[in-house]
Amino acid sequence: MLFPLRAPQKCLEPKNKENVQVIKVFSFLVLIISQLMAWSALAEPEEDRQAMLSFYEKHFPNVEFQEFANGVYAFDEIARQQWLEIEDFPPYEIAVDEGEAYFNNRFSNGNSYADCFENEGQGVRQNYPYFDTNVGKVITIELAINQCREKNSEKPLPYGKGELAAISSYMAYTSRGNTIDVKVPTNNPAALAAFESGKQFYYSRRGQLNFACSSCHIQAVGLSIRADPLSTTVGQVTHFPAYRARWGEMVTLQRRFAECNFQVRARPLALQSDQYRNLEYFLSFMSNGFELNGPASRR
Ligand code: HEC
Questions:
Q1: Quick one: which of 133, 138, 141, 240 has the fewest CB in 10 Å?
Q2: How does pLDDT run across 32-47, given as a tens digit for each residue?
């Protein structure tokens, strides 16, 4: 602890006016210091983002900001050519079409997804994740889709792939070109704590290989792991769900977290657990200013 939170006992027994003055000055100082600490915590998310951006700008002086949304294809020329060829016949198109059909299906009670979302769910992907100040938790798009189902007495869908990934892909598709602007409400300690928990997770080493997310995507960015060059943290969330050629299916962002955890032989967490949602909150804030370009195709 940096300074004592409680005044020493003898100060608390005012014997004369001088002691009362000391207590007043002391309380005033504690108040000022705690305010300063609160303000510095508030400034932190944006400072973190700026620091991360300048790190990557220095590391890749020739890569344009928006290009980081294309992951490794921003700086790996050979992989980029292959990717552009794949984009001629995008493998995620089927998922977008299926997602649209699921999205427009009515629930048994006659309502539909459109009733749960702003603007009937069109072009709203950039509003997620957000911190719900009423429940004190981060709400992601996939969670919101399942909450919509449950509100309408439908069973929640399994996370990570399939029908849920298809609906999420369709919602991403209708939001292409919209700019990510995740807010960390600075007057809300719970929101700051959620951001901080995501950040801690990103920088903590884990698994038998003892790697943090940052070990690969910051420290080793641009280098290759088993022929896979490593992408930057900024721009990493813009394009999910993504069609993974290796798996032949759509994969949500949190399933990618799980895969990256698995790669370092750490036990992946449950999709949409508080921790993964906080991680998504942190990571999405780091991509503020990027345009959405999902869904995407990845190796
Ligand atoms: C052992 C190295 C390693 C670690 C540690 C690691 N990743 Fe990855 N990650 C990869 C590789 C390899 C890829 C595929 C190439 C790429 O896109 O960077 C990848 C891809 C990703 C992608 C998709 C990027 C895109 O453009 O589609 C995200 C998101 C991601 N990682 C997040 C994380 C998070 C969050 C953590 C920590 C939980 C993490 N990674 C830890 C190696 C790692």
A1: 133
A2: 555 544 445 556 899 9
For residue 71 and ligand 1, the question of a CB distance below 6 A is answered with yes
User: How far does residue 228's CA lie from ligand 1's centre (Å)?
Assistant: 10
- Kindly give, in sequence order, each residue whose CB lies less than 8 Å from that of residue 198, ignoring residues fewer than 6 positions away: 278, 279, 280, 281, 282, 283
For 281-294, b/e burial (b = at least 16 CB within 10 A) is bbbbbbbbebbbbb
Please state, in angstroms and as integers, the Cα–Cα distance from residue 146 to each residue in 16, 108, 149, following that order. 64, 15, 5
Atom number in ligand 1 closest to CA 71: 26
Separation of alpha carbons 289 and 46, rounded Å = 12
Sign of the dihedral through C-alpha 245, 165, 45, 29? negative
CA atoms within 13 A on the CB side of 56: 30
Query: Quick one: CA torsion of 149, 154, 155, 157, rounded to 10 degrees?
Result: -40
Ligand 1 proximity of 260 Cβ (cutoff 6 Å)? yes
Query: What separation in Å is there between the alpha carbon of 230 and the centre of ligand 1?
Result: 7
Contact between 213 and 49 (Cβ < 8 Å)? no
- For residue 274 the two structure tokens come to 């508080």
CA dihedral 205, 207, 208, 213 (to 10 degrees): -50
217 Cβ below 6 A of ligand 1: yes
CA separation, residue 80 to residues 63, 77, 144, 263 (Å): 13, 5, 33, 24
Asked if 203 contacts 214 with a C-beta cutoff of 8 angstroms, the reply is yes
Instruction: Profile the chain (299 residues) by mean pLDDT over runs of 10 residues.
Output: 35 51 56 50 83 97 97 95 96 98 98 98 98 97 98 98 98 98 94 98 97 97 90 98 96 98 97 98 98 97
Å from CA of 231 to ligand 1 middle = 7
Tell me if 271 CB under 6 Å of ligand 1: no
256 C-beta closer than 6 A to ligand 1: yes
